[in-house]
Amino acid sequence: MEIPEHVDRVLSVVELIPPGHVMSYGAVADVVRERGGTASARSVGTVMARYGGAVPWHRVVNSAGRLPPGHERRARAALDAEGVPFRGERVDMRAAAWYPED
């Protein structure tokens, strides 16, 4: 099955997120747009829900640091193992948010 270009662009950005860091759906969309694609936070969420299993999906959270709906336990365990800081049930976005430099 051929993966649509938009899906490939989103997954390529997610693969760049280093361990111990996260990006919001909106930040992923911003990078996709900067690289010549089109994306919204909602479309990134859709891509992650349908195709995200092969990339570090747990490193994509909402802008408030909430974990992927329905996968909170698995995401929390994976992020804890990477040393991602939390404030209660949410990722501490000030400390853990990452954005590519290029």
From TrEMBL:
Keywords from the named record: DNA damage
Example of a GO biological process term: DNA repair
InterPro entries reported for this sequence: ATL_DNA_repair (IPR052520), MethylDNA_cys_MeTrfase_DNA-bd (IPR014048), MethylDNA_cys_MeTrfase_DNAb (IPR036217), WH-like_DNA-bd_sf (IPR036388)
Domain Methylated-DNA-[protein]-cysteine S-methyltransferase DNA binding: 8-84
One Pfam entry name: DNA_binding_1
CDD domains assigned to the protein according to its UniProt record, in alphabetical order: ATase (cd06445)
Segments passing through the bilayer: none
One MF term in the entry's GO annotations: catalytic activity
Protein name, entry field: Methylated-DNA-[protein]-cysteine S-methyltransferase DNA binding domain-containing protein
